[in-house]
Amino acid sequence: MSNYVIETWDLSKQYNGKAGCKNITLQVPRGSVFGFLGQNGAGKSTFVRTMLGLLHPTAGKAVMLGHPIGTVESRQKVGYLPELFRYPDWLTGQQLLEHHAQLCGLSRSQGRAVIRDVLEQVGLAGRERERIRGYSKGMQQRIGIACALLSDPELIFLDEPTSALDPIGRKEVRELITRLRDQGKTIFLNSHLLSEMESVCNYVGIIHRSELVVHGDWRKLSSVAPQVELTVEAASFSAGEELPAFVTESRLLREAASRATWLLTLDQDNRVPALLQALVGRGAAVHEVVQKQQSLEEVFLYWVQKKEGEAHVADHENHV
Amino acid sequence: MWPIMKITYREMISKRIFTITILMSLAFLLLFGVATWYAAREMNESWGGRASDMLLQKNFFSTQLLGMGLYFGSFITALLAILSSVGSIAHEVESHQIDTWLARALPRHRYVLGKFGGLTSMLVLYALLMFLGILGINQWVGGGMLAVDVSAQQIGTSLGYFILMPVILVCVSLLLSSITTTVTGGIILIILYGISFIGGFVEQIGSILGENALINIGIISSLLFPTDSLFRQSTVALFEAAEDPISFASQGIFGTTSPPSQLMFFYTLFYGAATLALAVRLFGKRDV
């Protein structure tokens, strides 16, 4: 069994050579919560819909759960909550789930048990006999999540799963995702709500203007520019030639009373002890060293801006 | 395939158009029954014991009345078939309802065939009840005066042609629904049905006038969309051979003086199968 539930090689889905997603090469580790991040229109949903066979790729190839995408086998153990969740509103929640249970090949008794379970999980127990047309948006999103969980999937695609939920609903979905991850399931989470992703995702892929910028363990991606906030006695320290070579950048953040706070960028995240040693050795009176933990938002912005910068340079060179 | 058939049944039944059609169909049958009853009473009063002398007139009026009922019955069956099936796939694609179905381990051909199975079985049942309802009114309400003398074999053959019409319509409808939007598909299908409808009349007029050009227009329209020829074959089968100059199948506004050939019937079957196969193929290739 492969360690990856999704592997793609230069997967592209473009519309007349534009938009969509382009040359996506990534691996999603089994049992992870993989956050696919990008701005609106970056190509996140296009990628998911291509993986699920709703769209046909224009180039590249991909394997999902060991089978080429577009095949029935690849979707056998997959759950999906679409971004534009629409369900036949003339059905009741129970009827919708029964139909999906039948499509999953569950027997009537299996279906009943599973439906009860997923309704409990999404907090809709007791409301399943109501017609979907009477459901609020949040309830429709919950019934959508219930549908995605029906087949006891190994891989679950959740495309903006909290877009219609209130803060309590969002928290419940985050807890649900964590529970599913603990059960060994892989969650592929599409969202641009970075603060929500941060708490549940361990892996991320960042897509910008149809192209994958980077992917991997997001806490490692954040270490691309390790930084420390250093508070020292202003008179005892000045940046410049006094700093060791592994400090690649320094910037004065603030100065209050006799203390100055500097933001230092290091070449590696294990330089803090050496930095302290060097500073003390040079007579700096150190009050505080705080290793800056980058948020997912900062990681995202860093990579997107980096990509933008590269694109700008490339454009400039082309013009020259 | 069964879950898709089942949800298609549910969808059809839940639609207001279905309820309205059922109610209006019952109203039509009631009206047809009342008209038949009054016509039979009028004929009884006018001809009384001379009915055997007026056999030709009696048979003419009875077949005309039944032909009219069947024509209207086939018309509303066709409308129901068009309205219920033309958006069956297209609407689900437009609304993205289809996404969660197709994201399952469900091959697309099963989805289309499930829709086909669900729609055709419902519409065949509707056409069957409509046909038997109209014929039953003719036989029982029309009594000895207006009841058309038909054998079980004639009824069976005629019914076969009658119920095939919504099946062909569903095949074409699914093809359009697979490749285009609900509105576009609906417009194309209604125009095609109109061409077939008008073409059928033009062909019969051409046959009466001996105008080959008109007959050819009718044949071309039947080749383009062969539903009218099915109705013609249905009435010919019910009212005996049209080649017979005094056959009641050839008389009146719903008569068929230029009956479709057996080859046309096989062409119609091929037409339906080909459009359904094309629907499966094209839907399998498209993005949703």
UniProtKB/TrEMBL annotation, chain A:
Keywords, in A-Z order: ATP-binding, Nucleotide-binding, Transport
Keyword ATP-binding among record annotations: yes
Matching Gene3D superfamilies: P-loop containing nucleotide triphosphate hydrolases (3.40.50.300)
Residues annotated as domain ABC transporter: 6-234
Transport is among the record's keywords: yes
InterPro entries: AAA+_ATPase, ABC_transporter-like_ATP-bd, ABC_transporter-like_CS, P-loop_NTPase
Superkingdom of the source species: Bacteria
GO molecular function: ATP binding; ATP hydrolysis activity
Family: Belongs to the ABC transporter superfamily.
PANTHER family the UniProt entry points to: ABC TRANSPORTER, ATP-BINDING PROTEIN
Protein name: Multidrug ABC transporter ATP-binding protein
The organism of origin for this protein: Brevibacillus parabrevis
Automatic annotation (TrEMBL), chain B:
Name used for this protein in its record: ABC transporter permease
Top-level taxon of the source organism: Bacteria
